[in-house]
Amino acid sequence: MPAWLLTKECRIRSADPRFMKYVKRYYQALLPKIVPHLVTHDGNVLMVQVENEYGSYGEEKAYLRQVKKYLEEGGIDLPLFTSDGPWQATLRAGSLIDDDVFTTGNFGSKAKENFADMAQFFEAHGKKWPLMCMEFWDGWFNRWKEPIIKRDPEELADAVKEALQIGSINLYMFHGGTNFGFMNGCSARGTIDLPQVTSYDYDAPLDEQGNPTEKYFALKRIDGRKFSRNAANGTMDKRNNRQKRNQLERKSQLFRNTGYHRRVDPLDLSSNNGRIGSEYWVPIVSNNDQKRCGQ
């Protein structure tokens, strides 16, 4: 949220018309750039988020519905979702579950307990939806004058394995980055706002420079599968190809259950001279990279 917005006479993240006019103006500039990249336009954007962790801030459904309306009016014809802490209070405050907006959670451990809370929330609202952690925290951001936060790679791998046995996850972050200028922001500690450092390395599987870390290889070892020798040339053996396709078929149930589904087979190597299409990629790590990371 831009700092200049705080100088305006309006209540942010609310249905206040003085605030919503800025939201609408922003979407009118942003959405025409996004719509051509939706999967419904042969792009690679699968879902669009209405709000992020709003349940930890407010509970004004009129505001959430207005944001949803602006997205739909702007041409977003994909499944919409919200994402909140997986507790009853935050899910109740931050979701639009009664409007059939897909509800997801954010957490980084204790998947069994957190997914159970989400399942209970779904059941209370008569939903048989898949369980999705939209932000599975594999590291953390850092504040000035505080120790750099690290997470043990093997402990993370165990936590991810537990989560994947129950539901689906997005790793947050998979690739570290940099917040330039004053985009680093701050986070609250009690009543004090503490500024975050410029680096958003996050102790992610790929670090701020894009290098694979020990976490990357620990996560890659979870199911024991490895790319075949031919992977470096852009092809995979047929057995791995079938396994990946079967996984995609199972995961696609997510979109069937939310009312949107389009079969996409990125592993059909019969075209494009046997190479994976440009919309899809497979991370190939050289032996030198593995040695550099101590593998």
TrEMBL record:
Sequence segments annotated as region (Disordered): 229-256
InterPro entries in UniProt: GH (IPR017853), Gly_Hdrlase_35_cat (IPR031330), Glycoside_Hdrlase_35 (IPR001944)
GO biological process entries: carbohydrate metabolic process
Composition bias, Basic and acidic residues: 236-252
Gene Ontology molecular function terms on file: hydrolase activity, hydrolyzing O-glycosyl compounds
Span of domain Glycoside hydrolase 35 catalytic: 1-222
Pfam family, one: Glyco_hydro_35
Similarity field: Belongs to the glycosyl hydrolase 35 family.
PANTHER family tied to this protein: BETA-GALACTOSIDASE RELATED
Name of the protein: Glycoside hydrolase 35 catalytic domain-containing protein
Organism per entry: Enterococcus durans
Lineage: Bacteria, Bacillati, Bacillota, Bacilli, Lactobacillales
